[in-house]
Structure formats: structure tokens, C-alpha cells
Amino acid sequence: xxxxxxxxxxxxxxxxxxxxxxxxxxxxxxxxxxxxxxxxxxxxxxxxxxxxxxxxxxxxxxxxxxxxxxxxxxxxxxxxxxxxxxxxxxxxxxxxxxxxxxxxxxxxxxxxxxxxxxxxxxxxxxxxxxxxxxxxxxxxxxxxxxxxxxxxxxxxxxxxxxxxxxxxxxxxxxxxxxxxxxxxxxxxxxxxxxxxxxxxxxxxxxxxxxxxxxxxxxxxxxxxxxxxxxxxxxxxxxxxxxxxxxxxxxxxxxxxxxxxxxxxxxxxxxxxxxxxxxxxxxxxxxxxxxxxxxxxxxxxxxxxxxxxxxxxxxxxxxxxxxxxxxxxxxxxxxxxxxxxxxxxxxxxxxxxxxxxxxxxxxxxxxxxxxxxxxxxxxxxxxxxxxxxxxxxxxxxxxxxxxxxxxxxxxxxxxxxxxxxxxxxxxxx
Length: 428
Ligand code: EPU
Fold this sequence. Notes:
Layout: E1 2-7, E2 12-17, H1 22-31, E3 39-42, H2 48-59, E4 63-67, E5 70-74, H3 96-105, E6 107-111, H4 124-132, E7 136-140, E8 143-147, E9 155-157, H5 163-173, E10 179-183, H6 189-200, E11 204-206, E12 212-216, E13 225-227, H7 232-245, E14 246-252, H8 260-268, E15 273-275, E16 279-282, E17 293-295, H9 306-313, E18 318-324, H10 333-339, E19 343-347, E20 350-355, E21 363-365, H11 369-381, E22 385-389, H12 391-395, H13 401-407, E23 411-416, H14 419-427
Parallel strand pairs: 2-14, 3-13, 9-10, 17-18, 21-22
Antiparallel strand pairs: 1-22, 1-23, 3-5, 4-5, 6-8, 7-8, 10-12, 11-12, 14-16, 15-16, 18-20, 19-20
Helix pairs in contact: 1-2, 1-3, 1-6, 3-5, 4-5, 5-6, 7-9, 7-11, 9-11
The structure holds uridine-diphosphate-2(N-acetylglucosaminyl) butyric acid (EPU).
């Protein structure tokens, strides 16, 4: 296991290139299970979640190659192998194997997913959708068993707007008999990306990106080539970093409309931003103003950028309030930021931040992926050396983070954890 060491306090400038979207990738890869010939996905990020899914597809008989961000999956010899334990527990998105395997084989056994601990993360809406399509769903010793004689299109109203449930129901429904309608569907760009891949494979999906999605089932799906969308959360993280400590950073390979809520908030803080076709330039900030943030479903402010944004707000003049309405417990980064001298109080699901403060380097722990991003930005701002453990969380979602930061002029490096640090992690 490793930690990141960051020598902070140096301004950053230059260009950073954004990779393919993690939260698309983790759905696009399972979607290939539904095809009857090879599917190629271009532009995948080189992150551990992608590697784990590659191995999971190989476990069920897929032939998979992954080189230079391009994955080809030959799904012809796949079987519905039970996956109750092992790699499925390592990432949240292994739940997409349920929808995809159910859609192709009419049966699946998949362990309940792992992923970041952000408070309760139920999958009742996914199950409601599978059952509406005709599947029998049981939970046996921590694994979900799905069986159906046949899948029939149905009308599913989501009680909670859920990215995962929307995509999972699409995966299960594309080969069902008749029409499925998902109402109160999530509208995130990643949902449109998955629908685009499935339609390229021969599916008939309309309305992805709106809150009503109609799917007319087809019998066969074929292979195709697909280019993934850029990662709006990785891009947003670098925009926040640029606002905090940049002297002019160009963020390349982005879809600017996907980042409108972030751009609007940064502009409200007086951060200079220029928008191009597929690039965003964040200029050097002068004094930045405190603002309030409330996370919402897309196109609202994304919960995945709430934690990095909190770090930026420690540099803003005045009091800011951040409220996460999606994951009320996504506040584990706050204690770590406090160790670095941040002035933050937590009240319910809100963080109240007073700034500006000079952050100090410290030993901190990334409890989840975006907490990790928040602490890396804090380390870059802080005086002295910051050590961030829990790097395995960061590597789940930020490809080549050390190389990208050093390319902007940062001094960041990886070090192996000492025996003593490993012992501390085991006992905590
Ligand atoms: N929810 C339910 N029941 C369900 C599903 C969700 O109550 O059956 C609740 C959740 O507890 C949460 C809300 O609905 O309060 C939204 O959850 P959603 O299902 O949309 O989240 P997800 O699909 O599990 C994805 C991303 C997350 C991101 C959320 C919200 C993936 C693999 N993960 O999770 O990304 O925070 O949408 O936008 O796509 C991350 O990238 O760091 C990350 C955690």
C-alpha cells in the first residue's frame, strides 16, 4: 500500500487532459455482456475500477483486451457464472452486472456491492425495476439472486432519482419483450452515454437525458465501437484545484455544458473562467468570495464535487455553507481538513466553513474517493508536507493523478507505507 506526499504552497499552471468518465466506464463495460459480437470502447480511464471490471468479465468467460485506453470485449462465450464474493465487493458499480446478466441470461448471482462509504446506499429501486420486468429477486447471504422465465417490458416509477437504478433497469430491459418506461429517471450525462452505446448495439432507447426513458425490447444486440464521454467530475476537480492554487490552467477534453453548475459557482466566487468548445480555462483567482452550495441531482451541483469544493471554500473570504442532499453522511473529509487548520463546523448534513485560512501540511487519511481529491487539493495549498493515506480510493477514480499534477508544476510523489503505518491501518 502507498501514500501520497505533497510539498504544498507552489502555484500551478499549464494544461491538463481529462480522461473518460469513470461513472460511464463502469456501466459501459458491463453493458458489453448484452452483445452477441465484440464491442470496443475507446477512451476508457486507466483506473482500478476499470481493471476490476475487466477481470470480472473475464471470470464469466469474456475475452477482454485493454490497451492504450481502448477495451475490446468479446462476450460470445460468456456464461452466467455466480459472482457472490471476491472482486464484486471492491466497487459499487458491480451492481451493473445484475442488470446486464439478467438481460442476457435471465439469471444472475451478484454479491452486494462495495465502493465508497457515504452512509446508507440502498439498491431497492434497482430491485423494484428488475421485479417489474418479471424477475424474482432474493438476497441470500449477502448476494442478490435474480431469476426470470422471461423479461417483459413494464412501467417503472423510481421513488428516488437514481443514476444506478436508471442504468440498471435500461440494461435489464433492452432485450425484454415489449416496451419499458422508466419514469422519474435520472438525467446524468453518463445515462445518455450508456444509452448511446446500447443503441449503437441495436437497442431502441428514447429519452435518455430526460426524466422519462422509453425502451422497446429487441431480440439481438450486436458489437460496435463507442467513444466514452469525458469525466465531468475529474474535470470539475481540476477546475476547483485551478481556482484554489492555479495561475492559469487549461482543462482539455471536456464537454462544458456538463459543468455548468460548477462554472456558475466558481464565477459567483469571482474566479475568471473562459469556455471553449472542448476546453475550459481557469485564470488566476484574486480574492475569492464565500458561497453556499447545495448538492442536487443533475443538472444541479454534483455531490461528487462537494468534498473538493469544501477545500476551495477554506480559501474564500467569509462564511460558506455546503449541504449534501444526496449523501447526508458524505462529510468524512471535514475532520481531516480540520487537522490541516481549516475552520469548519458540521451541523446535520451541512458544513459551515470560515475563510480564508492558511492550511498547514499534516498526515491525513482519504476515507473515500472524493475525500481523497479534497485532501490532495488541501495538500497542494498547504504550507509544508502533507501525507495522504487511503490512496487506493483515489486510484479508483483519478487516472495518473501524480503525473497530471506534476505536469502542472506540483511536487507530489508516492511512497510505500511503513510497517508501522500498515499496522495502524489494520488496527483502525
Ligand atoms: N438510492 C436509494 N435507493 C436506490 C438507489 C439509490 O435510496 O435503489 C439513493 C441513494 O442512497 C442516494 C440517492 O438515491 O441517496 C442517489 O443515488 P444514486 O443511485 O443516484 O447513486 P449511485 O448510482 O449509486 C452514482 C455514482 C456516484 C454518485 C451518485 C450520485 C456511479 C458508479 N456512482 O452512484 O459516484 O455520487 O451516482 O450522483 O455511477 C463517485 O464517483 O465518487 C460516486 C460516489
